[in-house]
Amino acid sequence: FGEKIPSVFKYIGMYALVAAVNSSIGIKDVMDQCFGTSYSDAMMDFAMYSMLFQSNVTEHFPTRMSDQQLYSGSCRSDAFYSDLYKNKISYSQILDFKKKWAKQCQGDGVEEVWICIDGSNDDCESTGVVFAEKGHAKSLRNRKIVSFTYAVTESGKPVTFNVYRGSLVDAKAMKRILSFLEEVNIHVKGVILDRGYCDSSALQYLNSAGISYVIMVKGAPTGYTDLVKKYGNKIKLNAEYFIQGTTLFGVQDKVQLFEGYTHEDCLTLFYDYKNGGERITDLLNKLNKEMDRCEKEIRKGEVPTIAARFKEVLALSDDSKKIAIIKEKLQECFDEKGLYSIVSSSEMTPSKVHHLYQCRNCSETDYMIVKTQLGYGKIRVYATKSVQSRFTIGFIASCIRYELQAAAKELNRSTPEIIQEMSRLYMTKIGDSYVPVQGIAGRQD
What we know:
Elements lengths: L8 E3 L1 H13 L1 H9 L1 H17 L7 H4 L13 H11 L2 H17 L4 E12 L9 E2 L9 E10 L4 E8 L4 H14 L3 E7 L6 H10 L2 E5 L5 H10 L10 E2 L4 E8 L9 E8 H27 L14 E3 L6 E3 L1 H10 L2 E6 L5 H9 L1 H14 L10 H27 L4 H8 L3 E5 L2 E4 L9
């Protein structure tokens, strides 16, 4: 008859985890200062929802969180959250939170660090989001996008974030993050960036600002091509260039990476034996299938059409009755497999360059979590202020989840395992109150 019946059970595991994290890093305390206790309670409840259900769909919140122990006195409606995002959280409050959280990170030892910066974007067709603009959409669709950037430490601890217009280039987005960190007195020893940041404008900015860098090289610029000619075959399976603890071989040299950019950078050329072997095996398997297909068509009296990816390495005879390999071109394909390069601002051993760049996996993991396991891979709001607010809560959830991930790693468990296990803890309703259930399982303890 529409009457609400109180739940017999109240699940307390997620609340217990978040409360434990807050006692360690104080993120809820920072939120209380910036947004007020009532609104920060609601924001933390939504962060728990994102972690539990890998979603940021507001309309499902009341149903899924009705039997959870919450920071708020009651389970808020989706209308409440829509109003919260659009009208109750201001940009000045978000900026204040970002500054105070950065200071909190300093207190936890984040003072002089290498920072991994990475960016992404979400499709956004709403006319109410002023910074939804055409750019390089990750979805590869011709749509307006909203872009965002996260900065994490070498270990993966989220330090700050930024949400900005979709057409802003990566180098300018990076400048904003670095300027903010400088403002809050976090000294950046250097930045670790993916290939999207590898262009002359980004290098020029970093060099002029005196910021060290390690960046994966995109494509085959002049400096890379020259280094491949000089060392490409020499380093392959050559013990002199072996990097201990890996399947890599590497060499570093000073080069002018881009035409027209006169600064000399240190470029490290790597050969990944395992990756190269796997890619060559895959190429040969597909090449053999393509040749078999063409030969079958020839036996049927047909003229085969060579697939686009093999047109450079396969050729038909003049009478179209034989298919043959162009060995020189195939050899070129073999030679390039497994080779890649990373540019750095100063001389380092290939081992050091590899180690630093591996830290970027932390930022990639953080992005994967935000976009998939926290549900922020889609823009589900229709106002600029709402986008800022939602990504703030997503950032808060990622900060908490990072701490859970660190704890799970010590137990040799995955973070989803820990969350799932703890989500089973509950209290039961006796009379008008909830009573904790006795006998916590050993794994939960």
